[in-house]
């Protein structure tokens, strides 16, 4: 069975269950619901049912598999600036995520993604899902300029096995229990931390290059090796250009810089009396 697509090739779905053990009651509901709805979705695709009928199935999936109260927590035709998103999930009276539904037999396309993200951006909602009942594309929306969106997870119900814990863990990301425990947010953070762009930025950072320089000088004590040369070799011969260039690479570098500045602030605030800020900055860099 093919593993459901991950937006990051580095994602390790086998670690999902390690975030926190799925309660037995929830695990049983996920497995039973998956077995019940897989043939329903197969039939809906074969009959090419309408979008309205697919919305009905999705609402039942939200209730019977994912554990939401479809009367109190799932709202149909959520109004957004004169238009409507198909479904909205509200927890404790607050909008949690939007769901744009397409008919069961329709393949999900880039223009559908844009429509869903536009709904989320206009509503100020961080999470939006595009689905045809079987495939669930989960996006996180960033409200910078321009608006950004990141595919955090894709769950294909037709490929999941109710007997595999890692498959049930995928569903748990979208469940009410998982949502309340912020597992989707934790998974997104894990995805970002392990992305090739984040690792590329870290490998080229001054601190890592400093470590490489020390080790190379230890192995080659008679050879002059400076940081600039190591940086050049990493960028031209070791790492792929796509990892170091483009919006995602730049975003990873900005994130790394923010973390470094935060660490420096913490060390500066906690420094003993008489220790200079320059000394603290040097420790952060090294």
Write the layout of secondary structure elements.
Blueprint: H1 24-47, H2 51-64, E1 74-80, E2 83-91, E3 94-101, H3 110-123, E4 127-131, E5 135-142, E6 148-156, H4 165-174, H5 176-180, H6 183-193, H7 196-203, H8 206-219, H9 227-238, H10 241-244, H11 247-270, H12 277-285
Parallel strand pairs: 3-4
Antiparallel strand pairs: 1-2, 2-3, 4-5, 5-6
What spatial form do the alpha-carbon principal axes imply? elongated
Which percent bin holds the helix content?
40-55%
Number of helices: 12
Write down the secondary-structure element order: HHEEEHEEEHHHHHHHHH
Secondary structure category: alpha+beta
Q: What fraction of residues sit in β-strands?
A: 15-25%
For the biggest β-sheet, the strand order reads 1-2-3-4-5-6
Distance between the termini: 46 Å
Overall mean pLDDT stands at: 80
What is the radius of gyration? 23 Å
Largest sheet properties: 6 strands, mixed
Q: Count the strands?
A: 6
Poorly predicted runs:
1-15, 279-286
